[in-house]
Amino acid sequence: MLAFMTSAVPAHKTAEAYLDAYLRELAAMGNRSQHTIRNYRNDIGQFLAWCGEREVEPLRMDRHTFRSYLAGLREQGIVAASITRRTSTVHGFYRYLLREGATEKDLLYGTALPKKPKRLPKVLDGGVIAQLLAAPDRGTPAGLRDAAILELLYGGGLRISELVALDVTHVDRDNWAAIVRGKGAKERVVLFGSPAMEALEAYLRDGRGKLSQGPEPALFLNRSGGRLTARSVQTMIKRCALAAGIAEDVHPHLLRHSFATHLLDGGADLRIVQDLLGHSSPNTTQIYTHVSRTQLAKISDQAWQAIAEQALEKPRSKRARKEAS
Description:
By secondary structure, this protein is mainly alpha-helical.
């Protein structure tokens, strides 16, 4: 065993002493940042303080008592993601206690982590997308580039990392497609519609050559002729959104979310959308069907509200005509 792990803590030591030793071990292992270790100290320290207030011995903890601790967090309004993190952190501490012989078994074994609520991705509606796509000044090389980027992010559902990694040779202009390298270095073919390809053709014909300052394989170039960075793309998108008068916080992944949801709204098969997005599991893509249904329900509610208002308005109009006569 490594030297930093051999400083065994005597059995009579308190849980706080074990916590100090645990954090020293994590720091010595070097695979966690100081920020993470501070979070561990705060999370476990707050748990031990809770035990102290209720005169509960942490080294004799049971699952029922620990669930009471979690229930208290929920009553305080702590968000689910934070409760999940604290639960995981305390679980790790108790596994350490077992390794050190401070307990005869993992006292929290079998206590499930709280389920994280599924957060539905936000999407932009078609009108807002149109405003954004119209924002770049297509009379300049940089504007042609920006227009092509926006069209590809929305029209192809690319991740920003995939977009900035594109080389000119990755684009198949005859078949309106490109080869991208996604997560896990997996390659896939993405397809673009005519607006995206027209914007890309305009950039390659009239824009890229004016930005280029030498041999550079990158498809999208910055003003110095080098490969455009993800940060620059993020900044450009926010600038275009501001120029278009869009109130939402627009970012590259929001365009990917919108691409997937709009495809499903248009009747695309889930498996096709999965392939286009490069998801390894259909479960990841499934969340967009929930967004699509949510959008549909919202539109339906608005339609029924309009019908109800029209129905109420008819008697009023009829009564007004009688009174006028």
